[in-house]
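Protocol step 4 of 6: record predicted structures for both targets in the notebook before any analysis. Target 1:
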Amino acid sequence: MNIPYLIEYLGLNLIAPRQGIRIVIAERRSLIFGFVTVLIAAIIESCVGSTVFVLKLLRHVPMVYAFAGPLVPTLAVLVGIFAVFLIWIITGGLVYLFARLLGGKGDFEATLAAGSLLWLPVFLLGLSGPIAAFVNYLAAIGLFLTLRCIAFVWGIVICCIALSEVHRFSVGRALLSMLLPVIVFMSFLLGLTVIPFMGVWW
């Protein structure tokens, strides 16, 4: 895999995910491109997030900053990268399950590749990194959260389009296959919250 081709692929998926995911599936590179996409996004998000939320905050606590030094931000980056990959794999499996239940025809690897596009617009956070380093803490958080929200919405759109191409069904079903795991998970959490009080009500 050469760098210019990778950049071209990532750029294509930002604006034409249906065409991009079709190329990757045809070349049988779904898993490797999904992995690389998530890796790049995880590094960017973890580094910028660590700068905004950890490093800038530690500077306001001199004793902790002097003791921990770069150890805490480095640990935050590593944990962040691991968390992003874990989320990608787990949500990819759940989306694949619900997509198949909704009549999808795609395989698991292609679903993971489509799911990786959810993280692709995170490059926007990379643009905010240099700015966040020089503004105050609240401004840095505001900038980070604003760009993260934009990246999330953009990611949902291109991920739905790619998922509909992978499973050969409508964008509506693709969105539903992404929402159903969230609904099930939230219902599960709600159930755990309500069950302890059922004895009191009865």
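Target 2:
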Amino acid sequence: MGQKSNPKSLRIKYKGWESNWFPSQNNQYKDFAYSDFVIRGLVNKELERAGVSDIRILRKAKYTEVYVVVARPGIIFGKNAIDLGVLNNSISNKCGSKISIKVLEQKNPDTSSKLLAQWISGQLEKRVPFRRAMKMAVKRCKTAGGLGIKIICSGRLGGVEIARSESYKEGKVPLGTFRTNIDYSFTEALTTYGKIGIKVWVNKGDHFEEFNYTLPDNQKKNKKDKKYVNAKKN
């Protein structure tokens, strides 16, 4: 039944939670859950060009830390940098709490299921044939060192009237082996003939990396530089 379950929820023991907090009162749970939903939505929207692959939320006593893993940090820290202070303030105003945004770099973007799904979605929206887009994504993943990849596209593929599903698989993707690090993601392509659902599974081997809640040395040393200011604290 591995193909009918979300690989992330089955591997919580090894991969950890994407949000880490504990409500002191029962009525805080819904507030924290809604706040997480708002934070992820705004970050994905504002930092879309940077290629967001993961968002981790760590709530502390007086403020919330948001760790954003991106494939192209140069877009955030480059010449025409995105003002994280403005994003931080907008999130703080909507959530009603202090927010600190910290940016980390994705080491191997072509093995990230979320980035591959987003790339396929972009290709389909540009009217690239779906089979070609899927094959190119498989090739990119295998070249980058992925042990296996599986892609499923569902919808009105090619603009036909009857919706269907097509899949490509290369290598091993053992969904039932919990010790295997399976990265899973889902996204939708908004085409002129309707939505196309895209699911991507990537086998990263038997090694699970713990999420590191620390900034790289280059950001720590230059924390006074405006380029590396992650967020303004109220």
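Step 5 preliminary note on target 2. Strands lie at 19-20, 52-59, 64-70, 99-105, 148-155, 164-171, 182-191, 194-203. The domain at 15-107+211-228 is CATH 3.30.300.20 (GMP Synthetase; Chain A, domain 3).
Proceed to step 6 after PI sign-off.
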